[in-house]
Design goal:
Chain lengths: 359, 359
């Protein structure tokens, strides 16, 4: 199974794979004297992993140069079934850090237990109030405004290969959330996730204290129709409804003593909205047709679960975006042993050549 | 206010203060040719801060030598009002670490959010289910079996100086728990406290993951009538009732995949029960009478909030125990700037001399 062998190297798949596939495809077309039908522009964004701090600026300053009938984005992985996939959007993101307060210092849990409020317990109750036992978010209006899926999009989701039971086994999961809905279906809803939580110390470092503060880091994945500001303000309203006075900086003693419950809510960044290109656009159909001619049946999905700043392109340049990834899903990106499966590279070169020549 | 000055030194108050007070009192009695009425034995336990791992053994091996009408324990602080206090017991303790499980590794919160269970959220819901908004523990039978207070004990609590509003201000608290009961009253109930909680990373180290595990460190303070094993098994039953399969070691993949919710519950140590000596014993009244003759009105309480292994003495030697502390409450014990207030040392010498000569 030589085609299943892998190249192990830093960023082998994310994001060297599509770059190598593209230039190799160009070389091959050139060597075979196959002409291009369209005017192709290449944009290599080297700051994507650092949240693309300058990309919007560059796009805005080069609107005319960078406008196109379609932007094909080659980031991300193919489907877990190893079939080629084409994604017509990505979820947006909004982050929040929540801190709640007990006494000004850690207290002896014997001398003050039962009397001094425990911020770890307060935070547990607060975040538990945000979601039910099956993952449904209980924040008021959390799902309001979601832009509905088209018939084509619904059909595409229904036709996606079933991978849930295999992924469940791969991840050692005894259950999944979402009331029986499949993973690909659930990615079309916004999510609220605890990225991390901490209060005092646990494990060997734990001591018999009532903690002084407790913090949770939250991320929300957004879908079309919900902006980062809307998502954050809905959560803030929810926290307020649980009896909390909201601050955006560490409260002073007077503020602490004059409120029964205080939560500091801070955003680490502005976040960004979701983006989704209609599968019914002529250019969308054209991309699918060419990809299918080169790679057989394609898994087509309205959105990927992760977040990519596609909105920058549609906002600044006004072009639709379609994601055409080539890397394997099990590539360990951003982690040890990052790898690119050789088959994915060969298939990627074929796909890129077909798109370059066919569009 | 020279008497309010303090000696700052490692263990200045905990536990050098009572040792110095005792030997100084003995010197003073000797110099003044005041005779002792009773046969006095001194026991200096040097491993108390390390949970006294050999004390029970030593007591058991020297039963006859160490038997006494009363053991006076000089550990701990005087009352927050700075009045002398005598405590007739201490709460026991039982500890538990709870770990719950998500996927076998941290997951990308975009690609799996809404579908893969989040152990931080599961743990938040689990610990939140253990206590109501006002600190009352909701674990079934948690308060069952508490040995009731005698009339003398109830009166002593009612007569204790009111310190709650001052301590609340000192700690910058906007509210306290316990349905309006006072701090000294609440110390006569068992408590359940989150010592620490953690899952993945928060703050600057947070990343967009669904954590793989989440852990909470719990301590319970016990009162007479509830053993450490009882307290622990009541919490374990509660966790089971929330739908968890309980294990005592990290579960293997098969175990994880065949249960919807798994909690590892581990005790770090056996813990120990509470101890309480009746205030109505002749020896209890005698100690109070002598202390009052030397130091004026005494704050007398059935128990301190913290835990001391008094049960070892009553169990092995069969003697009642009474705590006669001398250190100031604001001594920063176990922390930076530990200190002994000079007035407390002078008062402590007087008290020790009175007890040595008077009993």
């Amino acid at each position: 199974m030589i085609r299943d062998r892998r190249i192990y190297a830093r960023s082998a798949s994310d994001d060297k794979a599509p770059i190598i596939a593209l230039v190799t495809a160009l070389d091959a077309l050139h060597a075979s004297k196959i002409p291009l039908n369209a005017n192709i522009k290449f944009v290599l964004e080297g700051e994507e992993e650092a949240e693309s701090p300058h990309f919007s600026q560059i796009l805005a300053a080069n609107k005319e140069l960078l406008r196109a009938e379609v932007w094909l984005i080659c980031d991300g992985p193919v489907h877990q079934s190893r079939r080629q996939q084409i994604l017509f959007g990505a979820r947006g993101i909004a982050r929040l850090d929540i801190t709640v307060y007990g006494a000004k210092r850690e207290l002896h849990s014997g001398h003050y237990g039962n009397w001094a409020p425990n911020p770890a317990m307060m935070l547990a109750r607060l975040v538990a109030s945000m979601q039910d036992n099956d993952g449904r978010v209980l924040v008021d209006h959390f799902y309001d405004g979601i832009e509905p899926l088209s018939e084509t999009e619904k059909r595409a989701i229904a036709e996606a290969p079933e991978i849930d039971s295999e992924v469940k086994r791969e991840l050692w999961l005894g259950r999944t959330e979402g009331a029986g809905k499949s993973l690909v279906e659930l990615l079309n809803y916004p999510s609220l996730n605890i990225r991390g939580i901490s209060s005092a110390r646990s494990g060997d470092q734990a001591s018999n204290v009532i903690p002084s503060t407790a913090t949770a880091a939250i991320d929300m994945r957004l879908v079309k129709g919900i902006s980062p500001d809307q998502a954050r303000s809905r959560v803030v309203d929810h926290i307020r409804k649980q009896g909390y006075f909201i601050v955006d900086h560490d409260p002073d003693p007077d503020t602490l003593m004059s409120h029964t419950r205080i939560a500091k809510v801070a955003s680490r960044d502005a976040g960004y909205p979701a983006e989704r290109t209609s599968m019914d656009l002529p250019i969308s159909r054209e991309v699918l047709r060419i990809a299918e001619s080169a790679r057989g049946p394609i898994v087509r999905l309205p959105t990927m679960g992760g977040s990519v700043g596609l909105y920058m392109i549609s906002q600044s340049v006004g072009s639709p975006t379609i994601m055409v990834p080539i890397a394997n899903h099990d590539n360990n990106q951003h982690s040890f042993d990052e790898n690119l499966r050789l088959e994915n590279l060969w298939d990627g070169i074929e796909l890129m050549a077909a798109l370059l020549a066919g569009l």
